[in-house]
């Protein structure tokens, strides 16, 4: 814990941590020591972590990287962070992210962007750590903590993990309680660990998962010992390679890297099978209807009354002006864009044309996956991202270009499946690349084991 606190102090330029909690960290570390001495060593005992700013942490600023939650200190702890603390983990502080987890580069944060530790040369442009869990990725990659919590609505754990050379898993929808995590798109949001290795991910994920009556979508199914399932034996497993993930214009290095991953799994004894997920091309448009629709509804609660920021009002202003001014000041541009898109697609005149159609597409995408799993496929191998980490500022003026980053990850959230990004090598410029494995629902243990063979 002390080593991490020192490293964090020296790494301010990364913009990874946005609230520091050294007192809490030292107190929790002492308690962990005491537990160890008493012969009680839970799985996360004394492990220093960073917590994404989207998680409510009791008495500690939890702003979802938004101006509208300025000064908000929750009275309660999220179930996932509480589970980690119960397992002995230590909180070093809160981590940077895109505002309300909307973004793929950490550039929509009210705190300013986080930086990817993989390139900080003087004349080279700094790179994004990805988003929305950019602070988590940057912190783990730069050894400021041993692991971090992330959340993933459309790729926000897997894309930043791939950009920074670390491991990140989004479990099956319902594995981790959403209680106390600021809601973005409730039918897609899941928490998960971001770590240096697959083994660490297995240990941390197990500590995060639980059935929680406070989240009606939390699943009441047993959480296995994921670490014990890491045998490295994947002989006879059927790995699907979906043809629709060969996207037009995808850089050569991504294709090559994907082939190398395929060869590694084949060498380990897996059977490689070409498969088709025919509705893949509709995933991104469906996601960018459904996610903003749910966001516009979830974000209605930020009204200047209940939490955080309230605009200064002029003489004669009423409640409508208070809402309007507060929300105009408190939300950044990307969040406002999502609220507008979401409100539009949910409006009476356009509901059927957009929102209902997107829901139907979502069902078809889910069915595509069910069909291949029913045909005996154990896991699906794809690239995690369409490119290596890009320069900060390069895509921030073009929302559609930014949204294209999520092309390989959003399908997994729409179908509620577990997906993991594993670092599998470097490109010509020495930047990390990652591959994604997608598994059957509730079979994170199996998925982690396949990832372990790829690591
Ligand atoms: N980049 C995607 C978006 O902006 C996904 C974000 C996320 O998973 N939280 O919506």
Automatic annotation (TrEMBL):
Primary gene name: gatA
GO CC terms: glutamyl-tRNA(Gln) amidotransferase complex
EC number: 6.3.5.7
Quaternary structure and partners: Heterotrimer of A, B and C subunits.
Record-level GO BP terms: translation
Species per Swiss-Prot/TrEMBL record: Roseovarius atlanticus
Function statement: Allows the formation of correctly charged Gln-tRNA(Gln) through the transamidation of misacylated Glu-tRNA(Gln) in organisms which lack glutaminyl-tRNA synthetase. The reaction takes place in the presence of glutamine and ATP through an activated gamma-phospho-Glu-tRNA(Gln).
Domain Amidase: 1-448
Protein name: Glutamyl-tRNA(Gln) amidotransferase subunit A
Keywords: ATP-binding, Ligase, Nucleotide-binding, Protein biosynthesis, Transferase
Active-site residues from the entry: 52 (charge relay system), 132 (charge relay system), 156 (acyl-ester intermediate)
